[in-house]
Amino acid sequence: MIDSNLFRSDFIIITGGPGSGKTTLLHEIYKNNYNYIPEVAREIIRAQVSSEGDALPWKNVIKYRDLMLDKSIESFISALTNPQKQPLFFDRGIPDTLAYTQLVNIPITQKLESAARKYTYNKKVFILPPWKDIYQTDSERKQDFEEAVTTYKIMFETYARLGYELIEVPKLCVEERASFIIKNMKSLEF
User: Fold this and answer.
1) Domain 6-185 adopts which CATH fold?
2) What would the DSSP string read from start to end of 79-104?
3) Which residues fall within 8 angstroms of residue 142, CB to CB, at 6 or more apart?
4) Core-most of 40, 131, 139, 174, by most CB within 10 Å?
5) Count of Cβ atoms closer than 10 Å to residue 91 Cβ
6) Where are the domains of the chain?
7) Nearest Cα to 16, choosing from 2, 1, 26?
8) What is the pTM of this model?
9) Pure H helices in the chain
10) Taking Cα atoms as reference points, which of 8, 16, 11, 9 lies closest to residue 169?
């Protein structure tokens, strides 16, 4: 169940496996005058590659996961000070780190489990399904499409286990996806 310690109904997560169009969708939502918090994973990968660090998903998954958790908590806490009068979207949430931990089969720490229950978002989460037609790898996304499908399934299970209700975003052009989210977001409880 969702812990009410730091529950924010105006914090809305958009999640899904890699390459499902989250960032492109969030850019489109931004064009509709909604702000968002970018995904921390790519920021970590860029910083680690630049500094020749090893907290990378293809080197030291535990260090990478721990950095992801810390940065996700920082993003959540930083957003608490934002005096917005409207919803704030997140490109992934803290539960994504929990799902990643399960995906790479490393031990779930008490800190991670506690954070996923303490820092909570709107109970409805938008999830993008795997979409082979738009899937691409790059210097920061090295997973193949099959891993993207597995990631989606684990994300879905993790969010559901934590008490979130998932709304699957249809495979449409980015403008229609943004309209779908904005229309459905208006029915959310804030």
Assistant:
1) Rossmann fold (3.40.50)
2) HHT---SS-EEEES-HHHHHHHHHHT
3) 57, 58
4) 40
5) 21
6) 6-185
7) 26
8) 0.89
9) 22-31, 40-50, 61-80, 94-103, 110-118, 145-161, 174-185
10) 16
